[in-house]
Amino acid sequence: LVTSKDGNINERFLDSIEKLGFPYEFRKMTKNTKTLNKVLVGPFSTEKKAKDARRILRSKVEPGAFLVTL
């Protein structure tokens, strides 16, 4: 999961996730009158696959990527 407080997620960022072969979902939400953009990557069939993806995403796309169970 990656969030953006400034409301901007650029296409290059999303393309970099896609080029690594990961599916993603883009969500906008409002919290305390502020718009947040969230990029959810996955789903993954196992926790190990999710952790492996997080490691790759942190090294190649976003150092602050983290796991969330929905």
Structural descriptors:
70 residues, 33% helix, single chain, 3-stranded antiparallel sheet, alpha+beta
Q: Flag low-confidence runs.
A: none
Order of helices and strands: EHEEH
- Give the terminus-to-terminus CA distance: 11 Å
Tell me the strand percentage band: 25-35%
Structural class: alpha+beta
Count of runs of 4 or more consecutive helical residues? 2
Largest sheet: 3 strands, antiparallel
What fraction, in percent, of the residue positions are helical?
25-40%
Total number of beta strands: 3
Provide the residue-averaged pLDDT. Answer: 87
| Cross-sheet strand order for the largest sheet | 1-3-2
Write down the Rg.
12 Å
SSE diagram, text form:
Blueprint: E1 2-4, H1 11-19, E2 24-31, E3 34-41, H2 47-60
Antiparallel strand pairs: 1-3, 2-3
Quick structural summary:
The radius of gyration is 12 Å and the shape is globular. It is built from two helices and three strands. The protein is of the alpha+beta class and 70 residues long.
